[in-house]
Amino acid sequence: MAKRNASFLDETLRSLVEKIDEPFQAFIEQTLERLVQEHFAKCPKPDPQYTVQEVARLLCLDSNTVRSYLKKPLGHIRRLPFVECTDTSRGRRIRLSDVQAWQQRNLIDTLNQAEQREFDEKLVAIGLRRARRRAGRKGS
């Protein structure tokens, strides 16, 4: 749609420029071209949407896993938001921005889980050392 609007705008501007005297024509063309580019540079970029299978390939997951993430309740850290494009489940589309946000959320969650496992392992190691010391004291 942006291209269609741009081509319409481009045609309209060119027809106006042709009616202007030649010395000013180049100046006006450059100015209008710059203004059009600035206008479209300010417009938000489209957020691409992907199917479940495409997201599964992007995330190196099985498509059933991605479908299960779509079904998670709102607020769940693993929930992957989607857009309904049709009345069927085949119409579900996932925006790239949502995939990136999901990756960031779950990366942090994974790191937190890794830190927690490391902390738990240290606690177990400390407990084992204490148990060995106590066993050594009782044996003496």
Summary, kept brief:
The protein has five helices and three strands; from the N terminus they run H-H-E-H-H-E-E-H. It has helices spanning 2-18, 22-42, 52-59, 63-71, 96-139, and strands at residues 49-50, 83-84, 92-95.
Order of strands side by side in the largest beta sheet? 1-3-2
Helicity range: over 70%
Strand fraction equals: 5-15%
Count of individual domains: 2
Which whole number gives the mean pLDDT? 80
Largest sheet: 3 strands, antiparallel
The number of distinct β-strands equals 3
Morphology call: elongated
Following the backbone from N to C, one meets helices and strands in this order, namely HHEHHEEH
Distance between the termini: 85 Å
> In DSSP terms, counting alpha (H) and pi (I) runs of 4 or more, how many helices?
5
What is the SS-derived class? mainly alpha
Low-confidence stretches: none
Gyration radius, rounded:
30 Å
Any overview of this molecule?
With 140 residues, the chain is mainly alpha-helical. The protein has two domains: 41 residues, no CATH class; 67 residues. The chain is 71% helix and 6% strand. The protein has five helices and three strands. The longest helix is centred in the C-terminal third of the chain and has 44 residues. The termini are far apart.
Note the main attributes of this structure.
single chain, 140 residues, mainly alpha, three-stranded antiparallel beta sheet, 5 helices, 3 strands, 6% strand, elongated
SSE order and pairing:
Elements: H1 2-18, H2 22-42, E1 49-50, H3 52-59, H4 63-71, E2 83-84, E3 92-95, H5 96-139
Helix pairs in contact: 1-2, 3-4
